[in-house]
Specification:
The chain has helices at about 5-15, 20-25, 30-35, 45-60, 65-80, 115-135, 135-160, 175, 185. The protein has nine helices and no strands. It is elongated, with a radius of gyration of 46 Å.
């Protein structure tokens, strides 16, 4: 009796379709089609994918897909389930030390804490607590300092002499800059009512 893979290959060769063309038309990877024609379902992503691929390939080749899917379930899926699955390798933990009844319990020796480390940790903690308590005051101080710098800069600009226009050696009179424009710019032309 022919296996599923042999039926797939024979049907594809009867239609004279190369496997790469079959892969492009069915949108199944060439590797999966080749594996199905070899009856090797071990590299399939999951049994659900394998059943879908079998249906699609059988429909493409004009074969009845129901008996082929059933053959997959009976032969290939059960064979895969019978194989023991390997557990991932884990590092073995050393056995716990269980004291004998005759020996007294001993705890592992501790390193004595250095007084400098404890003092440093305490002072760092106090410093952090002090900064957190004074944070609103520090923020207000920074805002006030920024406002003061801005006012000083503004005052310095106002008292500075006016800039000279580029290309001329003359200085502009600040009063001329603030003068009203000549009257000719303010006069509006009068239109005759007769003119359209």
């Amino acid at each position: 009796m022919e296996t599923m893979g042999q039926r797939f290959r024979a049907a594809r060769e009867r239609k004279r379709i190369p496997i790469s063309r079959a892969a492009a038309l069915t949108r199944i990877k060439v590797q999966h089609l080749e594996a199905m024609e070899r009856d090797d379902f071990s590299q399939m992503p999951a049994p659900t994918y394998a059943k879908g691929f079998i249906r699609m390939y059988a429909d493409f080749l004009g074969l009845d897909s129901a008996p082929l899917v059933q053959e997959y379930l009976d032969v290939h899926l059960e064979a895969a389930e019978e194989k023991p699955r390997r557990r991932p390798a884990t590092t073995a933990l050393p056995p716990p030390d269980i004291p004998d009844e005759d020996t007294p319990e001993r705890s592992p020796p501790r390193k004595p804490a250095k007084p400098r480390d404890a003092a440093w940790a305490t002072s760092a903690r106090k410093l952090a607590d002090g900064l957190i308590k004074r944070l609103p005051l520090l923020v207000a101080l920074l805002i006030g300092l920024a406002a003061l710098v801005g006012m000083v800069r503004c005052a310095a600009r106002m008292g500075a002499p006016a800039a000279e226009p580029a290309g001329t050696g003359e200085r502009l009179d600040p009063q001329m800059i603030m003068k009203e424009p000549p009257v000719r710019y303010l006069d509006l032309p009068v239109l005759d009512e007769d003119t359209p």
